[in-house]
Amino acid sequence: MTTTTDTILHVAQVSKRFGGLQALSDVGITIHRGQVYGLIGPNGAGKTTFFNVITGLYTPDAGTFELEGRAYRPTAVHQVAKAGIARTFQNIRLFSDMTALENVQVGRHIRTHSGLVGAVFRTGSFKAEEAAIEHRARELLEYVGIARFADYKARTLSYGDQRRLEIARALATDPKLIALDEPAAGMNATEKVVLRELIDRIRKDGRTILLIEHDVKLVMGLCDRVTVLDYGKQIAEGTPADVQKNEKVIEAYLGASHTAH
Ligand SMILES: Nc1ncnc2c1ncn2[C@@H]1O[C@H](COP(=O)(O)OP(=O)(O)OP(=O)(O)O)[C@@H](O)[C@H]1O
């Protein structure tokens, strides 16, 4: 394998079939520490399927998976989260009747130690840990720019703010890799600028990011490297500048998007 100490995620030869449909064929990516890595392609290309496979939501038919040089089996979402991959969803999945703060606290709980006994008996260490979790959750709400909504129910937040809340919840797990599934979907131009700044800041603060995004401008401006999928096949991989020049890509995706944007 071609992993180095600077490799966060190395995934190779991933295939996934749904009945008669080959949704992914031999797809592989290597993401280095501190990169923003983009996954693009037309509708139905297999981007979400790939995300779902590496985060344990779908069982792959084939593939090898390494996180920081260690093999991991993406068989269950909570195990993948514990291993260090956190994600957001294209269709927001917050606990809508819980407050923004509580949603982030839930994310943080996978990194706690007191466990059930501590929770039942409310031991000193449990209470200290709870206070630390709340403190960290408030910091993260501030970080993504929605601290003022800490006590609002998640469902009352605007669409853009719910997306930011999902990012805060994902960051609460202290991930080695944060996977964002179409974070700009449904956002207006102003919200996209703020989102871009946030993703840039997350990277500057030392995180590694995998991004599915339809907004070509955003992808090209943010990503260090990009993989392009089309009908489940990887048709190009490289820097945004390289990928933009690739004829297969222009045909499959960018050509259409350039006229659309
Ligand atoms: N659970 C499933 N069962 C059957 N087919 C599926 C399932 N999930 C995805 N597919 C099919 O696999 C193909 C790839 O879909 P996928 O959602 O991964 O594409 P995508 O690139 O994320 O598209 P979009 O940009 O529209 O979100 C599509 O043809 C889709 O219909």
TrEMBL record:
Pfam families in UniProt: ABC_tran (PF00005), BCA_ABC_TP_C (PF12399)
Segments forming domain ABC transporter: 9-256
InterPro entries linked: AAA+_ATPase, ABC_AA/LPS_Transport, ABC_transporter-like_ATP-bd, ABC_transporter-like_CS, BCA_ABC_TP_C, P-loop_NTPase
GO cellular component: plasma membrane
GO biological process: D-alanine transmembrane transport; L-alanine transport; L-isoleucine import across plasma membrane; L-valine import across plasma membrane
Alphabetized Gene3D superfamilies for the sequence: P-loop containing nucleotide triphosphate hydrolases
Name of the protein described by the UniProt record: Amino acid/amide ABC transporter ATP-binding protein 1 (HAAT family)
Organism, scientific name: Rivibacter subsaxonicus
